[in-house]
Amino acid sequence: MRLGVVGAGAMVAEFLERAAPRVPGLEVAGVLARPRSLDRARELADRTGVPLVTDRLDELCAAGIDTLYVAVPNAAHVAYAREGLERGLHVVVEKPMTSTVDEALGLRRLAEERGLFLFEAITTIHLAAFAQVRAWLPRIGDVKLVQSQYSQYSRRYDAFRAGEVPPAFDPEQSGGALMDLGLYNLHFVLGLFGEPERATYTANVERGIDTSGVLVLRYPGFVATCTQAKDSAGPQGGLIQGTAGRITTSTSPNLVGAVTLELADGTVETVDDGLAGDRLATEFRAFVRAVEEDDRAAASAWLDRSVAVIRVQTAARLGAGIRFPADG
Known about the structure:
The protein is 35% helix and 26% strand.
């Protein structure tokens, strides 16, 4: 995979510094940055050995890339992803893949028409600890309650409270807690149980955006709750309660961490895949493998889940009165 990166923010820095060197078969050919971010991008490229920094997509494509990694503010994801697909490139889009389910379906149709791979960069579903949770589910009997929590005080919230509008809290940029931390909660729950019958979001809304909230997902026979907060700190992790036992995860759903099975007969098992700190490399290893092996089935299953998540996000967000320009 010869990769072109769009963006120069913290996620791109983490990817280039910590993840890309640990992904066999991956070569980063260049970085595309906005003119105001070029100096930061050049400094990052110098540190990580990336040979090209540009503010022109044509120049990035001329570097011989076959895949575009889109890591810019949420509202800009769909335009860059569409451009990449139209240019015949595979595309990896940072989460959330799009602002609305209609945008996601449109990108999917375009990728399928062009015979290209489209991935959402969501760490949760590629971690071995997550697979272990899924494998344990039959052992805890009938599932009754599910909780996934990701509360993390955002350093940008102070600026928001002072009257600024950082992208993370900007409806115009498709921000908010549900689109950010809540997405990991949703991938954790939907990755285990599929799409719910219905979803209801009760949010703390400030200046048109959700700074925190609780999403209730109704499934046949059980209820799942997803708590996400960018305005306060709180517990992080998951809990699945069944009639014969429970499963707990030790940290936020983007990492999963150590997972523990506790059964009513006294059995206790704990597994830690050790991949929490390697999460970005883990997902990109999966993407490279899928492209190299032309594994359309796996890629389609991942994309199914991404579309299901954005469908729930869209309905829940609109139900809570939170609207983005992409909603029309």
